[in-house]
Amino acid sequence: MLRNCLFLNILRKPLLQPIKRETLKIMGKLKGILSLGLIVILPGMLLVAMSYLGASHPLENTFVKKEWAFLQSSENSVEVLFFGYAGCSFICPNALIKLGNAIDELQTEENVEDIGGFFIDVNAALQLDRAQEYAQFFSPNIQGINTTEESLGRLQREFKIRIR
């Protein structure tokens, strides 16, 4: 019986309370600021976003010289380079699975035999030497490469990659 009384008391309380004048003033100011932001900032953001539509990476369709040791050792005419770090738990596994599947599909369905992939571990600070094992977990067609601080800086400059 006590539960019913408490329940009824809760239901009798007013659910909606009148809005205070101070709150209305603040909401009016926020409305003005948001409107200004939508009028001024949104078109600028759309302009910037539209400029990237259809844009590709600066290296797309660019041939890279085989001056890197890992590329010199490759017998494939096409190598796909994937930059990540061994132990990555979200983006890298999904992307490496897709890369491995794409290479497998090209080899089996399109008869492209001279294609492979390289997983380049950008975590040079730890130097764990796990890149090969990590890459092979996803596909035997992907080779893992560990980097040093020096080679990582060169990779960033030549391949125009950003590492956080």
Describe the fold and architecture:
The chain has 164 residues and is mostly helical. The chain folds into two domains: 2-52, no CATH class; 69-159, 3-Layer(aba) Sandwich (Glutaredoxin). 52% of the residues lie in helices and 12% in strands. It has six helices and three strands. Strands 1-2-3 form a three-stranded parallel beta sheet. The radius of gyration is 28 Å and the shape is elongated.
Please state the average pLDDT score: 75
**In the CATH scheme, what's the topology name of the largest domain?**
Glutaredoxin
- Unreliable stretches (pLDDT < 50, length at least 5) are 1-11
Count every helix, treating DSSP H or I runs of 4 or more residues as helices: 6
Quick one: CATH class of the largest domain? Alpha Beta
Largest sheet: 3 strands, parallel
Rg over alpha carbons: 28 Å
Key terms:
3-stranded parallel beta sheet, Glutaredoxin, 164 residues, 2 domains, 6 helices, mainly alpha, elongated
How would you summarize this macromolecular structure in one to three sentences?
The chain has 164 residues and is mostly helical. The chain folds into 2 domains: 2-52, no CATH class; 69-159, Glutaredoxin (3-Layer(aba) Sandwich).
